[in-house]
Design a protein that fits this description.
By secondary structure, the protein is mainly α. Helix 3 runs antiparallel to helix 7. About 75% of the residues lie in helices and about 0% in strands.
Length: about 350
């Protein structure tokens, strides 16, 4: 009798332990994948710089054109295979998806590529970390999150650090090399703001739709901009250099298709706050690759504003978000497919 009771009580314990081990393994795999994703995202600035080289390179808008076209083809094809009959969005989702494609893909990529072409890989990689800062600022502005003093201080520190960093570089301080760092840095900052807007828009649909479906439709909507992006731009140079062509291919494959898919895989296994903390790897990867590949030599002149920016980012990321409570809506008739 006692043995039977002991056997009976050990089964749930074993099941719980097995579930805990499985969850721990999923998390470790997710963290490993997340590191790889941040490496690819960190290499974006290097590939962007090489692909838009004035000698034998592509125009920044041309790079964005091909990135959107192939991203929509591959990611959209995978979504079509996986979801088939459930691929089409509701009419009520079209406006949000269009804005996500505009701010998250079209404007974001054009600003990023035009910015990197005018400044350095190192500076671009550092400024990209402003995305979580702008995301919280917009969430606060649109009433999606409650005011947290710690995060407000973090936003202020990060923005002050970014402004000082850009001004130091524009005055000719020997931080890094760049053709027009003030304009390029401004474009990178606006790119971060645009992508933060995309993340705010995505919050309302990611809880209702699979991540791959959302990414695919974001790229589908971005396709509408391709005819306008092609106006007055040479989409394919007469004689593209091997380095520019290789960089374009690597950007499309690693920084677009593989990164988006792996990021979706990782976010299903780790929390969003954990994923956000990994953004610190991007400027590290960008800085090391800029040094070893591009020959950029950062100095100590811009170290203290970088630390100020990262300190502000840390304050924004480490504070747990407090969402605005949503009141229950009155009962209504369920919607029909196609709404």
């Amino acid at each position: 009798m006692v043995c039977a009771m002991q056997a009976g009580t050990s089964l749930p314990t074993s099941a719980a332990q097995a579930a805990e081990l499985l969850e721990s393994k999923r998390r470790r795999v997710g963290l490993s994948v997340l590191v790889i994703v941040q490496v690819f995202f960190g290499l974006f600035s290097v590939f962007a710089k090489l692909s838009t080289d004035p000698v034998g390179g592509f125009a920044p808008r041309a790079v964005a054109f091909w990135r959107i076209a192939f991203g929509a083809l591959v990611l959209g094809g995978l979504a079509a295979i996986k979801y088939r009959a459930k691929l089409l969005p509701k009419r009520s989702e079209l406006g949000r998806l269009f804005c996500m494609g505009l701010f998250g893909i079209v404007v974001n990529q054009i600003l990023a590529l035009e910015g990197v072409a005018r400044t350095s890989v190192t500076l671009a990689g550092i400024l990209m970390t402003l995305i979580p800062v702008f995301t919280y600022a917009l969430a606060l502005l649109f009433g999606q999150e409650l005011l947290r003093p710690q995060r407000v201080v973090g936003i202020a520190l990060a923005l002050v650090g970014a402004v000082i960093l850009v001004l130091l570089r524009s005055r000719g301080e020997p931080l890094v090399a760049g053709a027009n760092p003030l304009v390029g840095s401004t474009l990178i900052i606006l790119n971060c703001l645009s992508y933060a807007g995309f993340l705010i828009l995505a919050r309302g649909i990611l809880g209702q739709r699979p991540a791959l479906w959302v990414i695919a439709w974001t790229f589908f909507m971005a396709l509408l901009a391709l005819p306008f992006m092609a106006v007055g731009v040479e989409l394919w140079p007469a004689q593209p250099s091997p380095s520019a062509l290789n960089a374009l291919v690597l950007m499309i494959v690693l920084c677009t298709i593989v990164s988006y898919l792996m990021n979706t895989f990782a976010l299903a296994r780790v929390s969003a706050s954990t994923a956000a903390s990994f953004i610190y790897l991007q400027p590290l990867v960008a800085g090391v690759s800029a040094w070893t590949i591009m020959g950029e030599r950062p100095s100590a002149a811009g170290l203290w504003p970088v630390l100020l920016l990262f300190g502000g980012l840390w304050l924004v990321i480490r504070a747990k978000p407090v969402r605005v409570p949503v009141l229950p809506e009155p009962l209504s008739a369920p919607g029909t497919p196609g709404d």
